[in-house]
Design goal:
disordered N terminus, elongated, Rossmann fold, Arc Repressor Mutant, subunit A, 2 domains, alpha/beta
Amino acid sequence: MANDGTKHMLDILLVEDNARLNEALKTGLDNTGEVRVVATMTTGESALEHCLSIGAPQAILMDVALAGQMNGIDAAVAIRREFPRLPVVFYSIQDDDAYYRAFRQSGILSHYAYVRKSNYLLPQMIVPLLRDAVAGRSFVDPEIEARVQEVRQRDENAPMNLLEPNEQKVALMLARGMTNEQIAARMGFRDKRTISRTNGEIYAAWGLADSATDEKIARTRAAIIVHSGRLIHWDADGNPFVIDARGKWTALEE
């Protein structure tokens, strides 16, 4: 029932691996009279299983750093694969490039609110964010947005940062024109399929996966990225674009 005649109770799933905080958040949110915590989970895996077996709530409130194999962003992506655009509100005190990178690369940033525990974890401050998320409005804490953009610009100016050490070595050899067989021999890969899998990870990290059906195109573009030292995006007509100082994709001038 609505507690003021206009606002309806929100059913949410709470995902937090700290037992004391989990309990405190549930109690505080339930006491607002505007939110009902239908279940609490401690891992992203259990949150996904809950949604699949019981059904999705109206929104999810989730910590970014969780106890399981999935972090909160991984879990949200997996859940939203099954329940498209399910609203998620994140919170975190972690200041880790990897989380900001995953947050951006999830591809659904505009549908997330992201808050810091230290600033916004009081229930009465979380409720408006949950309502905004359910209504399709996003909120990203300005400090978080600045860090996301900082990591984005650093990555796009240094695409090798997006690759793991072995992938970096393979990308450099690929850019020198070495064949898969030559790279595999140099790297000491025992499974011949490893080089194909590694190439695939490089293409995915650099946004070339769509052209991976034509491996030659993806391979050529990966080599160009290595030599240019910056991320390049090609549109459907083969026109190259790069990120400018304002964070916008602009045509790459010859």
